[in-house]
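Protein modeling request. Please complete all fields; requests missing the sequence field cannot be processed.
Requester role: graduate student
Desired output: 3D structure, token encoding
Chains: 1
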Amino acid sequence: MAGVSRLQYSTNMRLIRVMCSGRVDLEFILRAFLKGADGVFIGGCRLNECNYITHGNYGALSNVLMFKKIMEHIGLSPDRLRIEFMSSGDGLLLVDYTNTFIRQVQELGPIAKTEGIDPKILRFKLEAVSKLVPYIKLVEREKLRVPLQSEQAYYDFFASDRVNQLFKELIIDKLAVSQIMSLLQEKPLSTGEMSEKLGLSPSDISRHMNSSSRHGMVRYDTNQKRYALR
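Delivered output (230 residues):
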């Protein structure tokens, strides 16, 4: 409708059409940020008005709420990701939502620079997340299914203490180990060096190292006083 009505929206946004917002995989969001996008906006059909009776827009909402948690963990502003729902006749809404989002992202500034993250470190962290996408999907399917289909139910579910604890245990800790293993592929490192590179506390690094050592993934080199892969 926006195009037919000749409504003007910012040219700073690149539009990518998909058949359903549920088709917007976590990998797509990751790829956009890996390629340097300062923000990602997802527009879907109104909730409970699915054209394909699959309610893929709820899946899109779930992906966004999960990825916002990951963004917060790796140091990216969750405001760089947004989802809105509208009908095909809501051209004015589309223009308003996208222009508002673009202004918001412009205020945030360039990705990584505003957050004070080295671009190489950000890429490293995003790539570590990318490696976990199949596992994250499994966790979402098995442990993070929202019992009710309503927008408020989804927001309440992902903001709950129970889900925050599950998210930390099942995804955040797994992500930390993934990042540590990637670092150790380059060279042996001490607890302090890993802590500085990843922004994790030395106690968290030690906890992950003890667990990884018990599983035979790493060893401690007493001469170098550094951990290395087995």
